[in-house]
Structures are given as C-alpha cells and as structure tokens.
C-alpha cells in the first residue's frame, strides 16, 4: 500500500538528484525538492547563449521524467532528523534523505523564463561588437569558444585572475586551451581581475587590478559558483561539513555516521574533480543502496563508491575540445567529436527516458 512505502526525499533536481528521483519513483514514495520546476544540463548553457533554441532540449520539466513522484518547487532551508523545511513554509517528512544541491545559482523558477533568459543573453551577444568574459575556468573558456566560433567577427577578451586557464585540471590542458583561444583571436589576459565596483550599465570601459583599461560593449561573469550547502550550517548536519563547506560522506555515500541521509554530486568531500558524469555514478550507487535498505536486504549488499582520476573534456566551440585523460591531454576534433557537437544532450535525455529530440505534438 502507498502509505506503507518508505518516504525518500531528494533535495536538488540537478544532474545527480534527478537520477535518484527517476530511478526510485516506483520503489518508494519519492518527493523531489528543487528550487526550479525543471532540470537543466549545466554544460549546455553556454551553447544556449549563442543558440537559444538549443535550450529547448536541455531544459526539461521535472514532470516530464517524474510520473510517479511529488515535486516541490521551493528551496530547502533546514532539515531535522525527520523533516525538511522549505522556503515556502512546507514541512516534508522523510524516512531517507538524499542531498544533491550542487551549486548555488539564482536561475528562474520556470522553464519559459529560463528560455527567455537565454534569448536575452543571445541578443546581448549579437548586438555587441566586443565582449568581455570574466573568468578563465570551464564556463569562461567554453563561452569564449562558443562566441569565437559562432561570431568570429566579434572581439572577445577573456580576463582571468589566475596564472593559467582551467585551473581545475592540469596545466597542459590550460595551455592547450590558451593556444586554441589565441588561434581564434580571443585576447586572454591572465593574473588580473576586472574591477566591477561602481560599474554601471552602459559603461564600456573596464579597469583591471593591474591598472589596464579594457573597452567592451558588454560583459559576462563566468566565475565558479559556490556550493549550495551554506543553508546546512545551522542544521543537524552542521558538524558534517568540512572547512570548505563540503558534506563529509562515507564510502557508501551516507553522511558520516548516519544511516538514512546520503549526499551526492558536487557538494561532497569525495577527493575527485567535480563532474556531472561522476555525480551520476554516485547517484546510481545511492539508488542501489537505498533499494537494499528499503527492501530489507543485508548491508553487505550495499555498493561502495571509489573516487576516480581527473578526466574532463572542455569544449572549444562546436567541433573541438581539450580533453584531460589519465595519461594524455589532447585538443582538437577527437575530443570535440565526443562532447562538442551535441554536448551529451541526446544521451542525457535518453537516460531520463525521453526521446533524443523533442517530439512536437
Ligand atoms: C561550463 C561547465 C562545463 C561542464 N562540463 C561537464 C562535462 O562535460 N561533463 C561532466 O560530467 N560535467 C561537466 N560539468 C560539471 C557538472 O555540471 C557538475 O559536476 C554537475 O552539474 C553536478 O551535479 P549536481 O547534481 O551535484 O549539481 P547541479 O547539477 O548543480 O544541481 C543542483 C540542483 O540543486 C538545486 N538546488 C540548489 N540549492 C537548493 C536548495 N537549497 N533546495 C532545493 N534545491 C536546490 C539547483 O536548483 C539544482 O537543480 C561542467 C560544469 C560547467 C560549469
């Protein structure tokens, strides 16, 4: 009977949380709590800025893949041993909790508002002759690549505070990305910050920390987003966060010492680089482990998650990419063939039980 089924509450409907919600919806009473009504593929957002129609396939309403779960569109703001509290005042009881709140990002609540936002950003790019990108991590590099390939006549300037690009992976990948961007006439300025204090809309002169001035028609902030765990600091999990605000988990992905709370994705302290495909693998481990507990099997049937070596592909426009593999770092069309054409969108849609493309009625 429905009321006898265990209640599994998942916080965050991103890359990791959506997998758990979808996989468990017929095994438990599942509630997904997400601050927005839709799932989005984060690494496809840069393409959606240069080609807004791309987002039609990458923004997926939670209801489209969750046919047998409750969906609560609100932020989780507190948890107790038995309940989740949301910003809109709801109290949601749980038997098992999965925290997958990833990165704190203020994006619109509805899919249509998010589509409008991409259209707006696209207009901004199209109407500018020169564009300043602030930040040389994966977001800044991928956006610079998208604009340089789709709008080769625009002047693109990328400013990064560090001494090299792509600091989340090895130096070779950063150097190769720099070489590629330069070959596309992107001006890259390292070791300086753009001063945005007192910056007003319509202003076109930017000043940097070393006194340089840069002229650009518009700018995009591409800095890494903080983890969405600050809200846990005054909860029962306050002692389960490390000094960087990451949730400490054991090898079964349970929050240390707790039998019924799991954490997955970018927010954990697992010693590996934060990647969506790893977040999905962690989600699969939690799905298995929750099924083991829910169906009363022995704990030895639970799966263990092992950290992975640093593999990453950063796309450089539509056909090329730079890839860091275990013993090799390459740029060009081979890694581009893997990621840059469709940005894993078709694959992600299929994993969610959806068609590769949108089927129009
Ligand atoms: C430019 C770029 C390129 C990338 N390329 C790749 C790639 O090629 N391959 C790859 O595997 N990974 C890639 N990544 C990394 C990948 O996007 C992340 O590792 C992945 O999204 C992490 O998944 P997550 O579920 O932990 O968090 P997210 O996907 O960020 O999801 C978090 C969810 O939680 C929600 N949320 C946050 N706070 C709350 C709250 N308090 N209450 C309720 N809901 C909340 C958010 O709305 C969101 O839906 C890339 C990232 C970037 C920025």
Describe the structure.
The chain is α/β, with parallel strands linked by helices and 361 residues long. The chain folds into two domains: 2-35 and 74-105 and 225-305, 3-Layer(bba) Sandwich (FAD/NAD(P)-binding domain); 117-224, 3-Layer(bba) Sandwich (FAD/NAD(P)-binding domain), CATH 3.50.50.60. Helix content is 28%, strand content 23%. The protein contains ten helices and 20 strands. It has helices spanning 15-24, 45-50, 55-58, 62-65, 111-127, 138-150, 171-183, 276-294, 333-339, 345-351, and strands at residues 7-11, 29-34, 38-40, 59-61, 69-73, 76-79, 83-86, 91-93, 96-99, 130-134, 155-159, 187-189, 194-195, 205-208, 213-215, 218-221, 261-263, 312-316, 320-325, 328-332. The strands form six sheets. The chain has a five-stranded parallel β-sheet with strand order 5-2-1-9-17, with helices on one face. It has a four-stranded parallel β-sheet with strand order 12-11-10-16. α7 links the parallel β11 (155-159) and β12. α1 (15-24) packs parallel to α8 (276-294). The radius of gyration is 21 Å and the shape is globular. The two termini are 36 Å apart. The model has no long low-confidence stretch (mean pLDDT 96). The protein binds flavin-adenine dinucleotide. Residues 11-17, 33-36, 42-43, 75-76, 100-104, 138-139, 142, 228, 231, 265-266, 274-277, 279, 313, 339 line the site of flavin-adenine dinucleotide.
């Amino acid at each position: 009977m429905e009321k006898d089924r265990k209640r599994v509450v998942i916080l965050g409907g991103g890359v990791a949380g959506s997998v758990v919600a979808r996989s468990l919806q017929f095994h438990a009473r599942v509630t997904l709590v997400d601050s927005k009504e839709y799932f989005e593929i984060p690494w496809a957002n840069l393409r959606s800025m240069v080609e807004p129609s791309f987002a039609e396939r990458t923004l997926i309403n939670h209801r489209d893949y969750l046919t047998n779960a409750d969906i609560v569109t609100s932020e989780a703001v507190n948890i107790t041993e038995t309940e989740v509290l949301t910003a809109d005042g709801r109290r949601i009881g749980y038997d098992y909790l999965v925290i997958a709140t990833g990165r704190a990002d203020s994006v619109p609540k509805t899919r249509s508002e998010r589509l409008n936002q991409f259209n707006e950003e696209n207009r901004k790019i199209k109407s500018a002759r020169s564009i300043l990108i602030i930040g040389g991590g994966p977001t800044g590099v991928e956006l610079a690549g998208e604009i340089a390939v789709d709008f080769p006549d625009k002047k693109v300037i990328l400013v990064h505070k560090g001494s090299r690009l792509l600091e989340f992976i090895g130096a070779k990948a950063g150097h190769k990305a720099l070489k590629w961007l330069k070959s596309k006439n992107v001006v890259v300025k390292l070791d300086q910050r753009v001063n945005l204090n007192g910056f007003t809309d319509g202003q076109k002169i930017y000043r940097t920390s070393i006194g340089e001035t840069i002229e650009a028609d518009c700018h995009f902030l591409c800095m890494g987003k903080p983890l969405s765990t600050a809200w846990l600091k005054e909860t029962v999990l306050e002692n389960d966060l490390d000094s960087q605000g990451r949730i400490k988990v054991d090898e079964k992905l349970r929050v240390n010492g707790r039998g019924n709370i799991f954490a997955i994705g970018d927010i954990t302290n697992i010693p590996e680089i934060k990647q969506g495909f790893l977040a999905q693998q962690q989600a699969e481990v939690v799905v298995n482990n929750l099924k083991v507990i829910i169906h009363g099997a022995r704990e030895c049937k639970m799966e263990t998650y092992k950290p992975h070596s640093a593999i990453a592909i950063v796309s450089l426009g539509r056909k090329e990419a730079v890839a860091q593999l275990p013993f090799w770092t390459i740029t060009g069309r081979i890694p581009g063939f893997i990621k840059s054409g469709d940005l894993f969108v078709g694959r992600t849609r299929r994993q969610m039980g959806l068609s590769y493309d949108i089927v129009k009625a």
